[in-house]
Structures are given as structure tokens and as C-alpha cells.
Amino acid sequence: MDSVDDLARKALVIHRRLCALYGCPIPYFHSLDPLSELVSSLLSHRTRNAESGRAFKALRARYPDWAALIEAPTAEVEALIAGVTWPELKAPRIQAILRAVRGQHGALSLDFLGDLDVPAARAWLEAIPGVGPKTSAAVLSFSTLRMPALPVDSHHHRVAQRTGLIGPRVDVGPSHAILRAQLPPDWSAQALYDNHEVLMLHGQRCCHHRAPACGRCPLLDLCPTGLARQAPPAAEGTRSCAAPQPT
To answer: What is the pTM of this model?
Structure first.
């Protein structure tokens, strides 16, 4: 089993190789205020970017501000975001979370999070029911706050798991703290954003959920999963008795 230091070294090698492949620094894909980024992130859960983007634009076009969305009939909100996964759950959840922000902060704004450090800002967000580690990190990293938080989506998580940065049973939520701790504590918001983006891109373009393209992967020598997939199967009857296989 790799030590903590070994994993930190591996994480840096992976970052450098993928940055060379995908071209760091990666431009930020949009510039939303943090409250709008919260809505966008909630829509994006388990949903393709194109669909969540359309749903976000539909909400912005229908409601002059997020206060109007809170007061809108939930069925109307659900119809506007019908293209996302689980619109019947996301519509009331978004309304409830926006109400919670207004109730706890006294205003429909998250700009004040920029005055907090990252752990405090994430803790404030995650105290709201329905906001988890991925959403809190996305709000801080992707929004105009540009704070040094590391989001982990399903593609990022898959690459980290297959390369052994996290264990096979570590879920997406708990992986945030583990993967962030492997990277230098003084990394900038841009560097952490780059790390997320290149691992996500690699999951989308090479390390697919089904049939990963291990043969052309620049991380193959670092990836226990890929090496195992590339190894030729043992011929029947040739296994050594001295090395029994786990069952």
C-alpha cells in the first residue's frame, strides 16, 4: 500500500502529465456570481453539461432574480428544468436551499463567502441541507469568488480511484478531503481548478466508465487498474501454487 507521501508524489506526477496533455492553465468555463453558481451546480448533479446549461438559462430567462424563483410554483420550476436528471427533486430542493441562504444570511447573496477562508466557507454552505462537498467546492472554485477549493465530480473520482489515489470504496463525498490533502496546501485557485479539470477531462476522453482506453493513456505506468487490464491472462493451469489467488 502506498504511503501518504507516495500518494502525494503520484498526485503531482498525474497533475503534471495531464496538464501537459490538456494544456494548463485551463480557462474558467463561466463567470457566475456565487449564488447563481450554487443553482447551476445543483442542476448539474448527474446531468450532462448541455442539459444543465439549458435548464439554468431557462430559469434565468423566466425569473428576473432568484427571489422570484423562490416564490414561483414548484411545478412551474420543475417544468422549466425538465431536461435535467430528477427535476421533480431538484425543483423543490433549489427553492428550499435558496430560502435557507436568505434565512441564514439575511439576503439572497453568497458574495460574503469571499471574506471567509475555504474551510469556513465550505462549512457554511454544507450546513444547508442538500448542499454537499462537491457543490460547496464548485461554488467557491467555479464562481467569481475563484477560491482555492477542489471539486471532485464522477469523472475526476473515477480517474483518482483507478490510479490508486483513493481506495476502491471511497465515495465521491469523502474523496474531496483526501484528494485535496494530496496536493500542496499553498496551491492557487487556478492550480486546483486545473487539477479538477484535467482529471475530469481525462475521465471523459480516455478513462471512460466502460472500455477505458488504457493503451493510449499517459498514466498507464501509474495506474494499477490499467496495468491489470493490459496484462495478458494467465494460461489455464499455469498459476503457481506458491502464490494462491485471492477469492
So the answer is: 0.89
Reported as a single tens digit per residue, the pLDDT across 51-96 is: 999 999 999 999 999 999 999 999 999 999 999 999 999 999 999 9
Integer Cα distance of 180 and 8 in angstroms:
10
pLDDT range class, residue 230, cuts 50, 70, 90: confident
Q: Where are the domains of the chain?
A: 4-27+150-205, 34-142
Q: Which CATH class is domain 4-27+150-205?
A: mainly alpha
